[in-house]
Amino acid sequence: MGAKVVFFTFAYHTQFIMVRLSVNINKVATLRNSRGGNVPDLIQVAFDAERFGAQGITVHPRPDERHVRYSDVYALKKVVGTEFNIEGYPSTDFMKMVIEVKPDQVTLVPDPPNALTSNAGWDAKKNFSFLEEVIKEFTKHNIRTSVFMETELAQIEWAAKTGANRIELYTEEYATHYKVNREKAIEPYVKAAAKAKECSLGLNAGHDLSLENLKYFSEQIPNLQEVSIGHALIADALYLGLENTIQLYLRQLRHGS
Ligand code: PXP
Fold first, then answer.
1. What would the pLDDT profile of 134-145 be if each residue is shown by its tens digit?
2. Nearest CA to ligand 1 atom 11
3. Ligand 1 centroid to residue 10 C-alpha, Å
């Protein structure tokens, strides 16, 4: 009986503080594509990442398919048993694919087709009608929507009006300034997170998060629900191995209990 109470208290508390780690496997696809063939095997990596503790798998298929291909996304849907998150610009082709695959979450990014990586959040005010329409479509298909945003508070209010379930805060600025002054670097993110909460938006974050800066970010943002991490995590795995690396990232997210 006592043990049961302890377990439920622990489970409740853990759930309350848990930030999900979604591993972005685009870099694995980039490595595979550099040689043709199927090494490394993207599907196996996704499967193993989950086995090693990842609580989600993220992919960002770009129109030129230079990383993850549309065909990978369909194949991954069959094996991902945690949370499947597809990121991308909502073109007609992208929307068709996402609706067919039906992931748990779609993260909308405003990237132009040949962008090296995502380098800005949405101007949700300027793109309001477009985002509202796209989000309505995904919502109709029971796919959770998240929009990639910077920290400007008025923009977050516009994002909330689109009907999105969550925002994903673009953390490149935080990562850049973390090394100089982490208290100052986190400030706009704390305010943005509070605004998201006030607008009843869920909260994700991503871009340039790493073993160095992740713990502080997640400690300072109490309503953070999920981080998606690719570049630094895959780079760390070269030295530390994928299992060890995922465990280390998870450890950065475990605090406050
Ligand atoms: N979130 C979004 C919207 C992205 O485009 C990316 C990069 O594909 C990430 C998160 C992950 O960024 P990183 O590879 O720097 O961890």
1. 999 999 999 999
2. 207
3. 32
